[in-house]
From TrEMBL:
<dbReference type="InterPro" id="IPR012338">
    <property type="entry name" value="Beta-lactam/transpept-like"/>
</dbReference>
<dbReference type="GO" id="GO:0016787">
    <property type="term" value="F:hydrolase activity"/>
</dbReference>
<dbReference type="Pfam" id="PF00144">
    <property type="entry name" value="Beta-lactamase"/>
</dbReference>
<dbReference type="InterPro" id="IPR001466">
    <property type="entry name" value="Beta-lactam-related"/>
</dbReference>
<keyword id="KW-0378">Hydrolase</keyword>
<protein>
    <submittedName>
        <fullName>Serine hydrolase domain-containing protein</fullName>
        <ecNumber>3.-.-.-</ecNumber>
    </submittedName>
</protein>
<feature type="domain" description="DUF7586">
    <location>
        <begin position="349"/>
        <end position="432"/>
    </location>
</feature>
<dbReference type="InterPro" id="IPR050491">
    <property type="entry name" value="AmpC-like"/>
</dbReference>
<dbReference type="Pfam" id="PF24491">
    <property type="entry name" value="DUF7586"/>
</dbReference>
<dbReference type="InterPro" id="IPR056008">
    <property type="entry name" value="DUF7586"/>
</dbReference>
<feature type="domain" description="Beta-lactamase-related">
    <location>
        <begin position="17"/>
        <end position="322"/>
    </location>
</feature>
Length: 452
């Protein structure tokens, strides 16, 4: 499997992969790294059908399915068919959580039970939507307070039915036409298609395996039904990172990556957005999802800031350690990204130069820069604080894209000669000197004087 990495880096990555497969006795495993949308390194261990798994070998990806369902719900939102604040009853009436919002279901903060009523759904034949929804009664509501994180497979079964009712056809048909086909995910399916791995449980005290069932989960399928390949998941890491292929606007995917719930309290190393799991690791902010079904484990993480990602898939019920983040750490240790060469931009709007430089919010120094893509970047000159980028609007205002001022309006105040004198950012006034008395600072400005 080709790679552009140094031989020493390849060996370090292969050894980590080999240790994982050998020590945890995994029947087969494939893992790899992505950078700038291309496979940087991939390798595999074990066997599928007597041969090493390849980038075209299917594995069941479990709860990674939830991210695909999240994308379908956000498409409905962007079309104006629903709002994330809408109560579930407005779209799928009749359950005990009808007063919870679509956004709460996407972020696992609805208080709905982790699993549906009945036998262990991952190893049992699924039920149709009508029967599944009828069982979501008061027993399905957990006592945890609202707006706290409580992972719910049941909730994504409900969201799959929401998609089906809006589109008038099964969720997986909608997924095929609206996501899989446009992204050329030709080997991502709701059931196994050869070549594919079979799922196994490995005996804890002997080197023997037990075949795991792979039932059709029917109404619960949106929680974990999909199968996929390494190659298809490479394209999905690009989608999560913002290369959306017009399936969703990149701003919508960025919204999905924003934290909606935290699942490890004050530590905040892990959380959940809108269909994406979130992890903070080694200074990185990763978005994607893990997947677990009987006989299979999988993970996809994308680092949008670095335009990189990591993928692994294995056909074992349990036993994979922190392989994905370890591979990212090894790559950073052995071959960190070399910054691109700087060169002057030919597309800078020179009319914006008078906005650049130092501004003050009260006594705090900020600096405003023009980025090569035409965005304005405003951030503290030193230390941490409120930083945001802004996109120009036709009326001369600017809209915040991220950070504290996301969605807020920036207006440029000018004097009679047209010179920029202050920035009005959602009532915060930034001036060229601290508390410039010539600017409309709320409350007025008194002269500076020594402390008494």
């Amino acid at each position: 499997m080709s790679t552009s990495l140094l031989p020493s880096t390849q060996r370090a990555l292969l050894r980590r992969l080999a240790v994982e497969q050998s020590e945890n006795r995994i029947p087969s495993l494939i893992a790899g790294l992505v950078r700038d949308g291309e496979t940087l390194w991939v390798d595999s261990r074990g066997a599928v059908g007597g041969m090493r798994p390849t980038t075209d070998t299917q594995y069941r990806i479990g709860s990674i399915t939830k991210s695909f369902v999240g994308a379908l719900v956000m498409r409905l939102r962007d079309e104006g068919r629903l709002d994330l604040a809408d109560r579930l009853d407005e779209h799928v009436p009749g359950t005990a959580v009808g007063n919870r919002s679509i956004g709460e279901l996407l972020a696992h903060s609805s208080g709905l039970s982790a699993e549906p009523a009945g036998p262990w759904w991952e190893r049992a034949p699924g039920r149709p939507a009508e029967e599944f929804l009828a069982r979501i009664d008061q027993d399905a509501v957990r006592p945890a307070p609202r707006h706290t994180f409580h992972y719910s497979n049941t909730g994504f079964g409900v969201l799959g039915e929401l998609v089906a009712r809006h589109r008038g056809r099964p969720w997986y048909e909608v997924l095929q036409t609206e996501v899989l086909d446009p992204l050329d995910l030709n080997r991502t399916t709701t059931g196994p298609v050869a070549p594919h791995a079979d799922g196994y449980a490995v005996h804890p005290w002997a080197d023997v395996v037990l075949p795991e069932p792979a039932e059709d989960a029917v109404a619960m399928a949106p929680a974990g039904q999909l199968w996929s390949t390494f190659d298809d998941l490479v394209r999905w890491t690009k989608f999560v990172g913002g290369d959306t292929g017009e399936v969703l606007h990149p701003d919508t995917v960025a919204e999905m990556r924003a934290p909606g719930a935290v699942d490890d309290g004050a530590v905040w190393r892990a959380g959940y957005g809108l269909g994406f799991q979130l992890v903070r690791h080694g200074g990185r902010r990763l978005a994607g999802h893990t997947g677990s079904m009987p006989g299979f484990l999988a993970t996809v993480w994308s680092d949008p800031a670095e335009q990189s990602g990591v993928i692994f898939m294995a056909n074992t019920t349990a036993g994979v350690g922190p392989l994905a983040t370890d591979l990212l750490d090894l790559l950073e240790e052995h071959e960190p990204r070399i910054p691109a060469e700087w060169a002057p931009s030919p597309d800078v709007d020179l009319a914006l130069l008078d906005l650049t430089g130092q501004w003050y919010w009260g006594p705090s120094a900020y600096v405003l820069r023009v980025q090569p893509d035409g965005l304005l970047d405003l951030r503290p000159m030193q230390g941490r604080g409120r930083a945001s980028r802004f996109r120009a609007n036709p009326d001369g205002t600017w809209t915040g894209l991220d950070g504290y001022y996301s969605g807020e309006t920036l207006r440029v105040g000018r004097d009679a000669a047209g010179v920029a004198t202050h920035l009005d950012l959602n009532t915060f006034i930034f001036t060229r000197t601290p508390y410039d008395p010539q600017a409309p600072v709320p409350g007025g400005v008194s002269p500076w004087r020594p402390a008494s």
